[in-house]
Structures are given as C-alpha cells and as structure tokens.
Automatic annotation (TrEMBL):
The lineage of its organism: Bacteria, Bacillati, Bacillota, Bacilli, Bacillales. Belongs to the binding-protein-dependent transport system permease family. GO terms for molecular function: ABC-type phosphonate transporter activity. One of its GO terms (cellular component) is plasma membrane. This is Phosphonate ABC transporter, permease protein PhnE. It comes from Fictibacillus arsenicus.
C-alpha cells in the first residue's frame, strides 16, 4: 500500500503504547457508564426551567460577553505589534525575536485562572481582574498564532516594498498585514469564543457574570436555574460564532 510505509509501523506502535499507558493512568474504563441512569436522574432535575430570574441572568450574560470582548480586543491590540517582533522574517534581530517569543510563551503558559487569583490580591473581586487575566493570556496565544501567520506570508509584496525604498514598518503594514488580516480575524473570534468559556471559570473566583451565577446555582442546588444558565451560555457562543462568520465573509 502506498500510504503505509514500514517505518510508520513503529510510529503507530509508539502511539498505541502511549495510549494504553495513558488509559491506565487515567483509569479509562467505559464500563463505568453502567450507572448512566444516575446522570439522567440528575439532568431531569434541571427541568422545567425557572425563568423568573431570566432578566437578571440576561444582564449577567451581557457582562460575561463584555469581559470576553474586552479581554480579546485588548489582547489582540497588544499582541498584533508584538507578533511582528516574534516572527523570524520581521523581527530584525535574533535577540529581539528570542526575547519576544519567550515573553509570549510565558504569558501563554500561565492559565487565566492563575492570573485571576494573582490579580485578586491587588484589584479585588469583580469583572475587571477577569478582563486583565484574559488580556494577559490572549497576548501570549494571539501573539504566537499571528507570528506564525506572518512567517507564512508571501515574501513577494515585502520584497517589492523594500525595492522601492520603503521602511520595514511600512512594508509590514502594507505588504504583510493585508495578507494575514482575514486569518487574524478568525483567530480573534475564536479567542473571543474561548474567552466566554474562560470568563465562566473566572466566575468561580468572583469574576462576575453568568459564570459566577452558574457556580452559585450549582452550589445551592438550584438546578432549574442551572439549565437557564447553560441555555444562555449556548446562545452566547452560537451568537459570537455567527457574527464572526458574517464579518469574515465581508472581509474576505
């Protein structure tokens, strides 16, 4: 067979061994689903939905979207110029490239939850530290993703700009940025969607929004309100995905 080579057998063997070892470590056992009816009983407590608090929960959902939007927007605004320093073809100096990559890796390696806990000591409870936590993590993630887009950009337009004597930053602005902009928007809306889910986790540490309400409702066994929380979260994610797709259609 053309698609299969003998040396690939060892790759599949290593993957199989790693999968088996991981399953053993994680106690991966599908037979545990024999108590599936317990999950059904638990989910049945979610209905009928309690819609009495819907106006208040809708307000909290808007707060969650605001946290996610600001965290993604400010993250993009800071990450975009940094990504040009983190790309091999535009950084200009090896030390600048290495230092920027290290900085982005550091921000990316720290979860938003940890940033949130650290910021609580200075900023206290509320949505503001949640926004800053998402901004810091998004700088690391978006900086890396955009720098890879820059490295994959066509060199032709940049060489043409250099040939007519344009400065490096002008070339970056008019030769590279237009090429990567649709993909940058895709990354932004994906991170926006992820930030909505992240803000739910930050609600556990007092970040506000629908995540905090979800935590309270679970903790107080108000499952009929939990179902409303989950429904609103689903609507938010679908809405962001739909709007992001429409905007990308306009740009492309």
């Amino acid at each position: 067979m053309v698609w299969f080579k003998k040396r690939q057998f060892f790759v599949f063997l290593i993957i199989a061994v790693l999968a088996a070892y991981s399953m053993r470590l994680t106690e991966f056992d599908l037979s545990k689903f024999r108590d599936f009816e317990n999950m059904g009983d638990f989910l049945s407590k979610w209905f009928p939905m309690n819609t009495e608090s819907l106006p208040y929960l809708f307000t909290e959902s808007v707060l969650t979207i605001s946290i996610a939007f600001l965290g993604s927007l400010f993250g993009l605004i800071i990450a975009l110029p940094l990504s040009f320093f983190a790309a091999r073809n535009t950084s200009g100096h090896r030390i600048i490239f290495a230092a920027t990559r290290f900085y982005l890796s550091f921000l990316r390696s720290v979860p938003e939850f940890v940033f949130g806990l650290i910021l609580l000591t200075t900023l206290g409870l509320g949505p503001f530290p949640a926004v800053i936590a998402i901004v810091l993590h998004n700088i690391g993630v978006l900086g890396k993703l955009i720098s890879e887009l820059i490295e994959a950009a066509d060199k032709g337009p940049m060489e043409a700009m250099s040939a007519v004597g344009a400065k490096r930053w002008i070339g970056n602005l008019f030769a590279i940025l237009p090429q990567i902009w649709p993909n940058v928007l895709s990354q932004f809306f994906y991170r926006f969607e992820v930030a909505i889910r992240t803000s739910l986790i930050l609600g556990l540490i007092g970040g506000g929004g629908i995540g905090q309400q979800l935590f309270i409702h679970f903790k107080t066994f108000q499952y009929q309100l939990v179902s409303v929380d989950v429904l609103l979260i689903m609507i938010m994610v679908i809405l962001v995905d739909y709007i992001g797709g429409k905007i990308r259609e306009k740009v492309i």
